[in-house]
Amino acid sequence: MRQAEEGSNPAASDPASTLIHQALLYDGIETFAAAAARFCLDGLARGDRIMAVVTPPNIEALEDVLGADAARVELVNALEWYDAPGRTLDACGRYVNTHQLDHPRVRMLGEPVWRGRDRAQEAEWTRYESMLNAAFAGSPVWIMCTYDTRALPRHIVDDARRTHPELVTGHGTTVSPAYTEPSEFGHSRDLLPLPPPGQDYGTRHVFDADLRLLRQYVTAWAAAGELPAETADRLVIVVNEVAANAVEHGGGRGDILLWTEDDSICCDIRDAGRPDGEGLELFAGYLPPTSATARGYGLWVARQLCDLVEVRTGQAGTQVRLRLRRT
Prior knowledge:
This protein folds into 2 domains: 10-190, Rossmann fold (3-Layer(aba) Sandwich); 205-325, Heat Shock Protein 90, CATH 3.30.565.10. α4 packs across α11, α5 runs antiparallel to α7 (182-190) and α9 (229-249) packs antiparallel against α11 (297-305). It has helices at 29-45, 56-66, 78-81, 85-99, 119-135, 154-163, 182-190, 211-224, 229-249, 278-283, 297-305; strands at residues 20-26, 49-54, 74-77, 106-110, 141-148, 166-169, 172-175, 205-207, 254-261, 264-271, 308-314, 317-325. The longest helix is centred in the last third of the chain and has 21 residues, at 229-249. By secondary structure, it is of the alpha/beta class. Residues 21-165 form the MEDS domain.
């Protein structure tokens, strides 16, 4: 067991080119503020770039401890930052790319938002936490994600132990014995089937390589449902991108089902395709593609435009479920 002395962290001695990804498990706002302030002050002393993405009460607590040094930390409201897993992961990547050349490390203190999430959203945000390990592997990045063990459900905290290589508590820093590599963690989640659609849905529509007809079908469905123009446009774009993948990798055809669920638009796209390589498919759409023709581009676009994207691949084929807020 590696333990950190007060005001220090053994991970600080790791090479700057090595990703450090930790879960701070705290049981009170004072514990949070003390650990978060140490993380920030240590980074400032080393010339690191620091962004703290936490909820407003924790921003206030952190500012109180940091004092004048708070002005040297970029403070961001977590309720605005954590809006969709794909968009947030991309925003992290852009932040790192912007600052990594001018600083020894880029540090990000993050407080994922779990309140108000349903189980599907929880699962994808947990997968986001796991994907950080793949997205920033070998990068000069130090990420500390905070978890309030008093307020969060046990399964959320248990998953934090699986998605973070290191744990930080009031007793120090330790290697997480439950940590699971992103490929293995993602595969375990993919074994869980998606729930059936809600009651408000129609019939499945079959499509082939003529995606123009599919776009017309989706446009007509959106018009019948009186969707806002911006939402309808996003829906047509993401359906076209995912369907193009289905045509290319799923035998030239697929089917689509559209329905509404509370204030969301939901869409299932199925095809007969199966993964050629487990690792490639598990990471597809999470990391920015090198070009518009690169594999995974369609899923990446979907993750940027949708509020939730779920993918399941098995012997029966591939199922992609998209969710967009109506407004």
